[in-house]
Amino acid sequence: MDRIIIQGGTRLSGDVKISGAKNAALPILASALLADGANTYQNVPCLKDIESMKQLMIHLGARVENNDDTYQIDATGLNNFEAPYDLVRKMRASILVLGPLVARLGRARVSLPGGCAIGARPINLHLEALGRMGADIDIRHGYVEASADRLTGGEIYLDIPTVTGTENIMMAAVLADGNTVIRNAAREPEIVALADVLKQMGANIVGEGTSVISIKGVSSLTPVLVSIIPDRIEAGTFLTAGFLTGDNLNITGCQPGHLSAVIDKLRQAGAVIEVHSDKMSIKRTEKIKSTDLTTMPYPGFPTDMQAQFMVLMSIADGMSIISETVFENRFIHVSELKRMGADIEISGNTAMVRGVDYLSGAPVMATDLRASASLILAGLVARGETVVNRVYHLDRGYDAIEKKFAALGAKIFREKV
Ligand code: EPU
């Protein structure tokens, strides 16, 4: 597996353009299953997870073509209702085909995603909601089997505002008979992006972006041409890199409005950030102030930025407390950061980070996407050489991260192993 080698300590400067959002693109590509005809999606990031979704769509009978960041998906020939183990184990987000398949074919058989490095990640809320919409749900031989002649709208209260759960329910409800109301719905920008696409396809949705989403089912949808929103987590990762080691870093093609909590926290930590409509600028300030942090569903501070923020705090002035409330096991970067000299103690879902003067380069490895991104940031600011092994995880969610950092002046390259 490839690895990334970084000589830390160079100052980053220049412009970096943010790619399309992985977590917006995945449900939007899955929504192609809801209509006959060719959909066109632009600004799709070049990622392993997108390739996995492409393979899944082809397996289900859709025609998929792509040229650079533009994808065409035509699900007219949709003829298979099964998402097999081999595809789902590569990417948990494969569960996003469950809602569309039941809505469109009246049937789905999807391998049950297992736990992963960051937690158990059950899908009980997706299944309970589909059950309330009239689907028969069974779990057999490691697969979820769901069937319904036609789903019916229902009142759904989510115990937790699950992101992919809300997306699955939305995609099931747009073709259901009658009205669906999702209470305690997720409010992430990716939910709004999916709703925008579904509405362009002819769906009737109100309330996206709030915790109550109402959907009136329609009998059919039509294909669309849409562009994927910029990736707020990629933008936040570069923003954090700019604070760690930037010499005037401009992050372009982003939507700063999606990053309010991150921008606010970085400012509390002493960052000077200039925000424009689709661009942000940041540079390193002399001292990073210790700042406590608690992850929360949107509009709170994203769990997907917690590991990157921890790198900042590991060289901040003083002690900070970082609490992870979204996933139960999202501190796998801690042991690797400690090997680079960080002083971090974990107690339950809380990490106590005592800032040290500097991090030292080391060989490291992580089994999760955002943890891997944090190790790249740590490598960029550390003294000496860092080798980030198992780059597979990074490739799942960051489009050409080492090329983007190299273009900003970082001494970073990929080694094929
Ligand atoms: N949960 C349940 N039951 C459910 C669903 C969720 O208990 O049926 C729990 C989860 O175990 C977790 C919490 O609810 O503790 C929130 O999970 P959620 O369902 O919101 O997460 P997700 O939809 O599986 C998406 C992103 C993640 C991101 C989370 C939280 C996609 C494809 N994935 O996951 O992205 O961390 O929301 O914002 O949208 C990443 O990009 O690195 C990533 C992990």
- The proportion of strand residues reads 25-35%
Bound molecules: uridine-diphosphate-2(N-acetylglucosaminyl) butyric acid
What is the mean predicted local confidence, pLDDT?
Answer: 96
Low confidence ranges = none
State the total count of DSSP E strands: 24
CATH class value of the largest domain: Alpha Beta
CATH architectural label of the largest domain: Alpha-beta prism
Question: How is the biggest beta sheet arranged?
Answer: 4 strands, mixed
Number of helices: 14
Name the CATH homologous superfamily of the largest domain: Enolpyruvate transferase domain
Write up this protein.
The protein is of the alpha/beta class. It has two domains: 2-18 and 230-416, UDP-n-acetylglucosamine1-carboxyvinyl-transferase, Chain; 22-227, Enolpyruvate transferase domain (UDP-n-acetylglucosamine1-carboxyvinyl-transferase, Chain), CATH 3.65.10. The protein contains 14 helices and 24 strands. The chain has helices at 22-30, 48-60, 85-88, 98-105, 124-132, 163-173, 189-200, 232-245, 260-268, 306-314, 332-339, 369-381, 392-397, 401-407, and strands at residues 3-7, 12-17, 38-42, 63-67, 70-74, 82-83, 107-111, 136-140, 143-147, 155-157, 179-183, 204-206, 212-216, 225-227, 246-252, 272-275, 279-283, 293-294, 319-323, 343-347, 350-354, 363-365, 385-389, 411-415. Strands 22-23-1-24 form a four-stranded mixed sheet, with helices on one face. β16 and β17 form a beta hairpin. The longest helix is centred in the middle third of the chain and has 14 residues, at 232-245. The mean pLDDT is 96. Uridine-diphosphate-2(N-acetylglucosaminyl) butyric acid binds next to α1, α5, α6 and α12.
